[in-house]
Design brief:
two-stranded antiparallel sheet; binds zinc ion; single chain; alpha+beta; 2 helices
């Protein structure tokens, strides 16, 4: 019977392999069915000089991560929304009032 069990196992593996190929083919044809799967850190840590002031961004916001429901492909936050969020994050850090950055005020009390 061990032989039969092995054959069953091999058959299951083959089915799984074909299903994955079919899913990938559908994705290649129709595009992936990306669904939101939570978020990831924006990863936009950087240092920049602005008007002689060194600004350090901590990269503390999050970007959406999408996963394909068919092939399980994940964009790891590489999508248009994430690009936009990173840009807004950078702008807020550099030009906005960001609590996490200290510009070392010269007119303190
Ligand atoms: Zn896909
Ligand atoms: Zn950020």
């Amino acid at each position: 019977m061990a032989d039969l069990a092995e054959k069953l196992e091999a058959a299951r593996a083959e089915v799984a392999r074909l299903e994955r190929i079919a899913a990938t083919a559908t994705c290649r044809e129709l595009g992936c069915d990306m669904q939101s799967s939570g978020g990831a850190n924006c990863g936009c840590e950087f240092e920049e000089q602005l008007d002689g002031v060194k600004i350090i961004a901590a990269g503390c916001c999050s970007v959406p991560v999408n996963v394909c429901t068919r092939c399980g492909d994940c964009d790891y936050g590489k999508n248009a929304d994430a690009t936009e969020i990173r840009r807004a994050c950078r702008d807020a850090t550099l030009f906005g009032d960001h609590d996490t950055t200290s510009k070392g005020g010269s007119h303190g009390a």
